[in-house]
Amino acid sequence: MGKLFHERNRYSDDEYENEELENEELEEESFEDDNADEVNEAEAPDEEQAEDDEEEDDEYYEEDEEMDRRTYRRRRRIRNQVISYAVVLALLAALIAGGVFAGSKVAHIVKEKKAAREQEEMKAQIQAEQEAEDAHDVVIAAPEPVEEEPEADPLEEVVESSISTMPLEDKVAGLFIVTPEALTGVSTATQAGEGTQEALNKWGIGGLIYFDKNIKDREQIMEMLSSTVSKSKYPIFLAVDEEGGSVSRVAKSGIDVVQIDDMAAIGETGDTTQAHEAGLAIGNYLKELGFNLDFAPVADVAGSGESVMGDRVFGSDAQLVGDMVSNLVEGIEGTGVSSCLKHFPGIGATEEDTHDGRVETEKTLDEMRSLDFVPFKAGIEAGADFVMVSHITVASLEETVPSSMSKTIMTDVLRDELGFQGIIITDAMNMSAITEYYTTEEAAVMAIQGGADMLLMPDDFEKAYDAVLTAVKDGTITEERIDESLKRIYRVKYKDRIE
User: Do 435 and 477 meet the contact criterion of CB atoms below 8 Å apart?
Assistant: First the structure.
């Protein structure tokens, strides 16, 4: 900037010097003209006067010339100052203009950056929204489940503790329910005395079943049952067939209890509350006498022809029978007495009796699922503790054995398909459908292998017991398999003792 200012001043001085020369020439010419005019106008001055005048003119001219020079210098200074101020003002204007331009440029750059940043933010937002929208269509693999330790089950702990201290002989005995006569060897048992004590000490039996001949009156049966419980070293089932109607061991004995109609009569009403009330009534008087297991209700569905079950079934409508069964189960179980659905997979449509020999059904499993299994499923869902498996043979299966020995019927269908987790018990093993085709030993072992938890009334208890014990010892049946059944049994026996 200093160089530019210097060049501008130098150029101005040359310009003024040229102008000064021109002005001096003009002044001299003007001065000569004035003198000439004065000479012409004067009337013949004399020479002396002329000389004087010439001297005066020279003096005047010198003074005037000095004045002109001063005037010029002053003008030149003024002009130089004006030029300097103009240059400064021009530079200031340029600087201001440059600042304004630079400011506007900076503002423009800032604005562009802000716009770019906003655009990037908008793009990021749009991308996030798109990713969120796409996430709905993406199948995200579920995280690996964190294995949590299950909460302690008090009932399971009690059951495990009880089983762990039992010798193998008592474990095997705990799988049987027999009559008091089969246990003690007497012809008719009406009391629990020393013989009962000795037998219970020898065999830790799972349960006893009582019939008409064992029941004389209220006091007698109550004393007998109470004494049996006190003499048993393990919790024990005290069972009876109390269906109502014709099969009522207690009600038919003469003891003053509520009389319940046949199930067929209740089924004809279509009123399920009557079934529930019947269950409550039966359960209450059994509980009062000391029984804790009722082999009822009958869950069979009657067929179109004459049924071997007669009036013991609710009817031929599977859904109605299921509703009646579930209500009766709830009534019995509600009193603290265990109920037992019978006779799986269903014998209501058969005319032959397994008491007398082999009985077959031509139904397929699919046909049974749509009809016979319906009431059993309803009873299971209602909370039945037991399911009794009959000795009927299902001809359509590869296993041509009674259902009470069939793995397909007990394990694959009842346990796995229908989801029953309670106690599977066989029908009485002293029926001809078993004894005519199998030895006591064979039948007992085959039933356990097929999936039964408990064996009811084998033809010869001691032989059946020894056969199962031997099978465990030689590895034909594992002790773990025995423990599985005992756990189910003891969960029912201890269920009311755990709050």
Answer: no
